[in-house]
Each structure stands twice: as C-alpha cells, then as structure tokens.
Amino acid sequence: MDIGIGIPNTVLDTPGALLIEWSRRAEARGFVSLATIGRIAYPAHDELIGLTAAAGATERIGLFTNILLVPAFPVAVLAKQTATLASASRGRFTLGAGVGTRPDDFAASASSFQDRGRRFDRQLEALHAAWRGDPLPGTDHRVAPPVPNGRVPMMFAGQPRFAAPRAVRWNAGYTIGGAAPEHAAGAAEEFRRTYADLDGASVPRVAALAYFSLGDEHTEESLRNLRTYYALLGDWAETIAQGAARSPHDLRSRMRAYEDAGIDELLFDPTVANIDQVDRLADIVFG
Questions:
Q1: CA angle at residue 252 from 28 to 242, to 5 degrees?
Q2: Which terminus of the chain, N or C, has fewer Cβ atoms within 10 Å?
Q3: For 185-243, how does the pLDDT look when each residue is reduced to its tens digit (9 = 90+)?
C-alpha cells in the first residue's frame, strides 16, 4: 500500500508559504503524493492553486485533489486550470472529483445544488474534450493548453453505485473520504464489484483518507480544526474530531487495517499546520 500525505490547505490560519515548504518536505521524506481536501464556503486555500505552487516546488511527488467539487465550478475555467496544472507538473496531477454534499458550497459559488450530479456528468464530457484539445461540446472554443497523454487521470468519490459507472466510463479509480477501515473495506469491495459487473477495462485504483495529528501539544488545535470544518454535521463532527489518529500505535494499526481492507493508497491528512507533522508521520510510516 502506498502512503501519501495531505497538505494543510483547509487547516485554519495556515500561511500560504507553508504549503510550499510542506510539499518539498513531503517529497524529500518519500511520500508518493500530496493531496488536498476542499470546500468553497470555508476560509481555505484553493486546491488547484495550492497544488500548482507545490508542482513548482517539487519534481516527483504526485498531486491529487481529494476531492474537488467539480459541479461548483464553471467548466471552461476548470478545464483551463486543470490542464495548466497537469502540464506544469509534467503529468503528475490526478483530479479527484465528486459532486459534494453541502448546499452552502454551492450557494457560495452561485451554483445549483439539486442537479449537481447530472451537471457533473456533462462537465466530465467537456473536461475530457478540452484535455484532448477539442472544443468544448456545443461550441467552437478550445479553452485549454495541451495535456500530457491527452487526459488528466481521475479518481471519483461518493457512493460506489454512482462512482463505479463514472470510473468505467473514464478509466478512473475510486477515493474514499474519511471512512474507518471497516467501512472503507465495504465501499472498496462494492466499488470493485460494480466496476467489474460493468466490464471495466482495468484494475481500478482505490484510495482512502485518514486524519491525523502527532504530538500531545497539537491535540487541542487538531480537535478545534476538525470540529470547525465539520460543524454543519452537528454531533457527527465530534465523532470525526475524536476519530483522528494521534499516536504512533494508532497510525500503525490503521495502516495495517486499511491495507487489509484492500486500499491501494492511504492518504494521511493533517489537522494542524505545523511542518513537524510531515517528519513525525514519515518517521512512523517509513521508519
């Protein structure tokens, strides 16, 4: 199982310059990818701009939006941004995408919420056309620069019954956000079964996310950040906050559990914006 690390783009009060230092350190310590999480109705750093900065500061590490709320963005702008990042990173970028579940993100971006799934599928057609160098469907407008290999690799989030058909259509993988290992195992199994039933052309890659903080001095800040980020979920926000891995033993146990669950890449997402988290995690994961 590969191990990636998130960048603290949604952690409150993160200095923008830290994203660059964090990215360099993560590459130097051997993580296979840098991942973002993202919302719009939240004072977070933009995922695509953050990863573009990371691309310029690194040479090898993968770059992954985990996930970008695609239906909340204008498709022409998104095609241009994702193509630019894919080109600037020499093909290291993977677009993790989903429809989102919070109405406030769509209200903030003046996008409709109820039809986001149908709009998402239309956007996927448009994005792939733009990445191939074709005009956007129904127009004469070519809006994006050339993309390595003519496409941006993708991972889909959400319920397996919706994600698997999209993954089959676009030869993509599946990403599971914040589920405990036993729940991730069920989702991965259902996704792979549905993918196979739909005659998927390859063996799909499956990723999962787990929150962490290391060091007792960071625990209260970690709890505050998770409670704030998930405040709209009510009592469930406290379950998420308390569920982050916060000890070496817990981290190692979760790594074993996610690997047993059939996860191909585990992404440890930070809950405090301190560069020591990269080294503390690396010491446990690779030590």
A1: 100
A2: C
A3: 999 999 999 999 999 988 999 999 999 999 999 999 999 999 999 999 999 999 999 99
Strand pairing partners for 144? Answer: none
How many other C-beta atoms are found inside a 10 Å radius of the C-beta of residue 201? 9
Contact partners, residue 173, CB within 8 Å, separation at least 6? 154, 155, 156, 167, 204, 205, 206, 207, 264
**Domains within the chain, CATH numbers bracketed:** 2-286 (3.20.20.30)
For residue 126, what are its two tokens? 């448009």
Question: Could you tell me what percent of the chain has a pLDDT over 70?
Answer: 100
- Identify whether the C-beta of residue 128 lies closer than 8 Å to the C-beta of residue 97: no
User: Which DSSP letter does residue 135 get?
Assistant: P
What residues does 36 pair with on adjacent strands?
Answer: 65
List own/partner pairs for 15-24 with CB under 8 A and 24 or more apart.
15/273, 16/45, 16/50, 16/53, 18/273, 18/275, 19/45, 19/50, 19/53, 19/54, 20/53, 20/54, 20/57, 21/275, 22/275, 22/278, 23/53, 23/54, 23/57, 23/58, 23/61, 24/57, 24/58
Instruction: Please tell me what DSSP assigns to residue 219.
Output: H
pLDDT digits (tens, 9 = 90+) for 12-57: 999 999 999 999 999 999 999 999 999 999 999 999 999 999 999 9
The structure's pTM equals 0.97
Which residues touch 182 (CB under 8 Å, ≥6 apart)? 257, 261
Burial class (CB in 10 A: 0-12, 13-18, 19+), 266: buried
Instruction: Confirm if 183 and 164 have CB atoms less than 8 A apart.
Output: no
Determine the 3-state secondary structure of 140 from DSSP. coil
